[in-house]
Each structure stands twice: as structure tokens, then as C-alpha cells.
Amino acid sequence: MVSRGIELMLNERVSNFGDIELNKYVKDQVVKTESGKDVTCDMVIRCTGGKPNTSAFKEALGSAVNDNGLVKVDQFLRVEGSENIFAIGDIVDIDEEKMSVAANAHVEIVAKNIAAALKGSKMHAYRPSSGTIMLIPLGRNGGVGQLPFMNLGETLTKNIKSSNLFTNKTWNDMGQKPPK
Ligand SMILES: Cc1cc2nc3c(=O)[nH]c(=O)nc-3n(C[C@H](O)[C@H](O)[C@H](O)COP(=O)(O)OP(=O)(O)OC[C@H]3O[C@@H](n4cnc5c(N)ncnc54)[C@H](O)[C@@H]3O)c2cc1C
User: Fold this and answer.
1) 82, 92, 136, 170: most buried by Cβ count inside 10 Å?
2) How many other C-beta atoms are found inside a 10 Å radius of the C-beta of residue 105?
3) Which CA distances in Å does 30 have to 5, 6, 91, 116?
4) Nearest protein Cα to ligand 1, atom 45
5) Among residues 124, 130, 129, which one has the least CA distance to residue 76?
6) 153 to each of 38, 105, 147, 156, how far by Cα in Å?
7) 67 lies in the same domain as 13
């Protein structure tokens, strides 16, 4: 980021989020920090962690949705208190990093468990992932990555993710050829 002219301000907290219009062009908005710095900018994107949007089924699932909007599940990824509703992905209340790697692992377990439920056979327990696998593209040709045992630089991140954002994998997963 620094090599692309991005200035990082570390150990600072924004103090005026309530006054700022987020995610759209607004000329000369001033972001204030707790240490008293002012930063004038035209767009502010908040990247301080997301909250799952489970409002659509909060009422239907009742107390299975916790105060943070996460869906409580048992070891088979069934929604708490239900025999035949499963939850997968970032919305599940499991103590692990919110990652597509984990979401894909949920999919595999739930697919097996739906089949097991239909056959009346034993379900598979989900084992939460440990460690972080995170690749952050910065344009098509750059980015950085973090694996449990090493960090990745621009070239590896580009080759693995930035050049196509895993769209080729998605086409292949669906049994399709990626378009040229
Ligand atoms: C910048 C960034 C980089 C990341 N990099 C990595 C990485 O390198 N490795 C990794 O493993 N993970 C990474 N992640 C995390 C990964 O993207 C998520 O863990 C993953 O996408 C979760 O999948 P999901 O299907 O649970 O949720 P999502 O991918 O968020 O999909 C949920 C979908 O539901 C839709 N939706 C919401 N509400 C409704 C509704 N009421 N009705 C219908 N549809 C609705 C949303 O529009 C969305 O399309 C990254 C995330 C970000 C933001």
C-alpha cells in the first residue's frame, strides 16, 4: 500500500463516525481522530468489522439468533433448536475467523448432513477451522496474503487471487468453463 502512495495512520481511532456520510462521494468531509488529527477526504469507507445481516429471518429463528445477529448452531451446523434447518457461512456463531475457506467447509458438511438426514444415517460434526487464510487483492496485479505459516507478497497473491478473484474456481465448481 505504501509503495502505491497510500498513507497509513496507525494507532489512531476515528472519533466522529456519527457525523460522516459513508460509502459515497461527499466532497471535503473531515474525519477526526481521537488524538486530534483532521483528515479531509471525498469518500469514507468503514472497514472496522462487519455485522451479519440476519434481520430477514430473525423473527423466524427467534432465540437462535444471538444479540450480535449470529445464528447459533449445533456441531452438525443445524440451527439451535431445529432438526432440519442448517446455517452456513459468516452468519454462524462459531468461534473461528469469518472466511470463505470456512464457509466452503460448512457447505461440504451441510451437504453431507442433509443427505444423512434423508437417509436416516449418522451426521458429520463440523470442526472449526484454525488459522487464517486471507488474500487481499490490491488491483489486478498486487495484494498481500496471510497463511497460517507464512505471509504472501504481490506475485503470489496476484497469481492465486488478484488476477481473477477466484471467479475461475467458481465457474469450475459449477461445471462450466470460464469465459475468455
Ligand atoms: C475484502 C475481503 C477480503 C476477503 N478475503 C478473504 C480471503 O482471502 N480468504 C477467505 O477465506 N475469506 C476472505 N474474505 C471473507 C469471505 O468473503 C467471507 O467469509 C465469505 O464471503 C462468507 O460467505 P457467505 O456466503 O457466508 O456470505 P456472503 O459472501 O456475504 O454472501 C451473503 C449473500 O447474501 C446476500 N443477502 C444478504 N441478505 C439477504 C436477504 N435478505 N435476501 C437475499 N440475499 C441476501 C448478500 O447480498 C450476499 O450476496 C474476505 C472478505 C472481504 C470483505
Assistant:
1) 92
2) 18
3) 20, 18, 33, 56
4) 53
5) 124
6) 32, 26, 11, 6
7) no
Q: What pLDDT, on a 0 to 100 scale, did the predictor assign at position 4?
A: 83
Same domain? For 60 and 109 the reply is: yes
Predicted TM-score (pTM) of this structure: 0.81
Taking only the tens place, the pLDDT of each residue in 130-156 is: 888 899 999 999 999 999 899 999 999
Round to whole Å and give the CA distance between 159 and 165.
Answer: 10
Does residue 125 sit within a domain? no
131 domain residue, yes or no: no
Is 60's C-beta closer than 6 angstroms to any atom of ligand 1? no
In this structure, the residue with its CA closest to atom 37 of ligand 1 is 53
- Tell me the residue length of the chain: 180
Nearest C-alpha to atom 1 of ligand 1 is from which residue? 136
- Sign of CA pseudo-dihedral 103, 49, 145, 164: positive
What the block records as the C-alpha cell of 135 is 488474500
Question: In total, how many domains does the chain have?
Answer: 3
Q: Which of 100, 109, 163 to mutate to test the pocket of ligand 1 (most atoms within 8 A of CB)?
A: 100
Which mutation among 86, 90, 152, 167 tests ligand 1's pocket best, with the greatest number of atoms within 8 A of CB? 90
Nearest atom, ligand 1, residue 135 CA: 8
